[in-house]
Amino acid sequence: MITDPAVLLLLVLAGVGAGLTGATAGLASLVSYPALLAAGLPPVTANVTNTVAMLGTTAGAAAGARPELAGQRARLVPLCVITTVGGACGGLVLLLTPSGAFTVIVPWLIGGASLVLMAGPRLRRLAEGAEHHGLSPATGVTAFLIGIYGGYFGAAAGVLMLALLVSVWTQPLARTNAAKNVVTGSANLLAAIVFAVTGKVVWTAALAVCLGSLGGSWLGSTLVRHLPATPLRIGIGVAGLGLAIVLGWQAFAA
Question: Terminus-to-terminus CA distance in the chain, angstroms?
């Protein structure tokens, strides 16, 4: 348990940064996970604590993006069900497998998703009309796999989901980004419950990050409404590639 007020304050500030980047770019864990490691938590403990804390990002982002979420219930509900089940599976995989087993392919997933995100409009034109036929099997399977990844590790799961949704939906980026926040948050939900039951969560740290992320994600959802779509999409993609390089270096240099 972390009780040092200075450390808890820094975790709250890290939560604000995580919520802000999560709501705008899907990279919340890029801020919060390293902060938990810096606070002295072991990697797996930091990961499960971070998953619980990121529920605050989902709540804040949903509250801040209510105008963008309006009218999206019909297609969000099935996606949320799929990613929730996937997130639970990912959480179980984390608890039942060696902690470093999945990290080798994580950089490739993030890097590929970042490239897909930057090529989103072109891919969407190639798949034009797909969204008018409901949730396709390919989209559902991909969302499930992203849910597994989100429950297992989580970093840049939002980039993966945004890349998927941008490639199949024709709507403003702010609306797709709001949907992404809800869908990836659903993947965290059951995984967070699984982790809470195991007793591995450091609750003081989780609450500190969660508190900060509530405010940060609400602000991030508001900012997305006013930012130009193309530079934002490219910026998220570049940031995702940067994260992929860092994680790749850490995985293969170990």
Answer: 28
Q: Is the CB of residue 180 less than 8 Å from the CB of residue 131?
A: no
Length of the chain: 254
* Token digits of residue 14: 């890290």
**201: phi then psi, degrees, rounded to nearest 5:** -75, 135
Whether the model pTM is above 0.90: no
Cα 241 to Cα 56: distance, rounded to the nearest angstrom? 25
CA 176/CA 178 separation, integer angstroms? 5
Residues 42 and 134: their CA atoms lie apart, in Å, by 43
* Cβ atoms within 10 Å, residue 71: 11
pLDDT tens-digit profile of 9-33? 999 999 998 888 888 777 787 788 8
Q: Helix 29-38 and helix 43-53: axis angle, to 10°?
A: 130
CA-wise closest residue to 57 among 88, 90, 33, 82: 33
Give the angle 212-46-217 at the CA atoms, nearest 5°. Answer: 25
Q: Where are the alpha helices (DSSP H) in 127-228?
A: 137-152, 157-168, 173-198, 203-224
Angle, CA 133 vertex, CA 128 and CA 137 arms, to 5°: 95
Q: What is the DSSP letter of 41?
A: -
